[in-house]
Design goal:
Number of helices: 8
Distance between the termini: 47 Å
Number of strands: 13
Radius of gyration: 20 Å
């Protein structure tokens, strides 16, 4: 009798473990491209090659509210360069959160149609995925998730979205995977206390949500600077290499699969030369 009982318990444990297993993203390195002209110089091309970058999440345009409250595209990118062979283009669209409080009827179809038109116009082929970036809140979550379902239905291929730390406590969105944004983690108003781009103390409270979050995740780290004018004084925020690597170690110790797919934000010559090659080797280390 005890043998049968033990067998049933073991079977149940195996079933639970199987249900908890997440899909694992393929290993790979990627970058965001967040400028309005896709133009790569020799330094940026060398960077893609040196660190085996196989994906570029390229911001195609934003969706914003205009002065009369209509949803319109803004800051559309132009293409002056082509991607190197073997690097996948992932069109990315940033949508302001206030758009989620408006009528979204037809937006998903228009967005997908615009991406396809841009791809055709600029001979960008074999696009298999798009990403939507939105700082949705608990109040706008349901509407945003419905919008994602409509985008997925119109696109009919892989769809991802950004995941900010505060969104880890919410139900996961209906996408194939998320890009965990490990940047812009702090309050810009408290810049004298902590770096608003990235500070491990701002990340730590959210780490507890990582292991149980069911969506496959890539990890995105900051390599950019932020220049602001505060009371007439130029203040530049940059993140020390040690801080980036400390956060990387912290999140990977809680969720090991965050080692598999690594993204840096964003591709730019000035960002490349800001850090030593050894730092990039560590960031992209799987």
């Amino acid at each position: 009798m005890r043998t049968i009982y033990a067998y049933i318990v073991l079977l149940l444990l195996l079933m639970v473990t199987s249900c908890q297993q997440r899909e694992r993203l393929a290993e790979g390195n990627a970058v965001y491209y967040w400028r309005t002209d896709f133009r790569l110089d020799s330094t940026e091309r060398s960077f893609l090659s040196q660190y085996h970058i196989n994906k570029v999440y390229c911001r195609y345009f934003d969706v914003v509210l205009n002065e009369v409250g209509e949803l319109v595209p803004n800051a559309t990118i132009k293409f002056s360069s082509a991607l190197p062979e073997g690097v996948e283009m992932i069109p990315t669209v940033y949508i302001t959160e206030d758009c989620m409080h408006r009528d979204l009827k037809g937006l998903a179809e228009k967005l997908v149609s615009r991406i396809k038109q841009m791809n055709d116009t600029h001979d960008i082929v074999e696009v298999k995925e798009i990403q939507i970036d939105c700082d949705y809140t608990a109040k706008s979550r349901q509407k945003y998730y419905q919008f994602l379902k409509e985008v997925k239905a119109a696109w009919k291929q892989k769809l991802s979205t950004t995941i900010r730390l505060h969104q880890l406590s919410m139900e996961e969105p209906p996408v194939d995977y998320g890009a965990l944004m490990l940047y812009n983690t702090g309050d810009p108003r408290k810049w004298t206390e902590r770096n608003p781009i990235l500070d491990a103390r701002d990340v730590r409270p959210y780490v507890k949500w990582l292991n149980d979050y069911p969506l496959p995740l890539a990890a995105a780290y900051p390599v950019f600077s932020w220049l602001r004018v505060i009371q007439g004084v130029n203040i530049e925020h940059t993140v020390k290499a040690d801080e980036i690597l400390h956060v990387k170690q912290m999140v990977e110790s809680e969720r090991e699969d965050l080692k598999r797919a690594i993204i840096t934000y964003h591709l730019d010559k000035e960002n490349i030369i800001r850090y030593k090659p050894e730092t990039y080797e560590e960031i992209y280390h799987h």
